[in-house]
Amino acid sequence: MEFLKMKNRMFLKIFRELWDQKRYENIFYMQSDAEDINSIDYIDYYDLIAIFFEDEEGYQRSMFLPYPLLPKKYQKKLKELIKEGQIKLCSRAWHDSIPKITKPTEFYPNFYFKKLSPNDSEYEDNDVEYEELQ
Fold it and tell me: Is the separation of the CB atoms in 50 and 28 below 8 Å?
């Protein structure tokens, strides 16, 4: 529990530095896919605030915090900055399946809309198993 408290304090310290310096390009709002993309006013515990930065030694780092844990004084302004386009809105799929130091480049990662086709090996394996069962 102490580790989580320490992590949250560190996140807020770095978040405030980026916020005060107006380095909004390093702050991302990662929206869960439970609601419509255009509904930024919907608040879900699974929405994340992501920050991407370089540490003292020059390594790329990232940190994440659930949106409801962000102090209230930042929440309203954050939503306004998203609507203005200064803070990027993206899918939480970036957090769940991409290496964590990769900054999002668009709403969804490229693989998100990839569908299985009959030519995919995974699809063919399922057909073989299905045929064997019959």
Answer: yes
How many other CB atoms are there within 10 angstroms of residue 92's CB atom? 19
Model confidence pLDDT, tens digit, residues 90-112: 888 878 776 666 788 777 776 65
pTM of the model: 0.71
Angle formed at CA 66 by CA 73 and CA 94, multiple of 5 degrees: 125
Question: DSSP readout, 9-76?
Answer: HHHHHHHHHHHHTT-GGGEEEEE-TTS-TT-TT---TT-EEEEEEE-TTS-EEEEEEEGGGS-HHHHH
Query: What's the angle, vertex CA 71, arms to CA 24 and CA 107, rounded to 5?
Result: 40
**Other CB atoms within 10 Å distance of the CB of residue 57:** 6
Residues 6+ apart with CB under 8 A from 31: 37, 40, 44, 47, 89, 90, 91, 92
* Domain boundary assignment for the chain: 2-133
Number of residues that make up the chain? 134
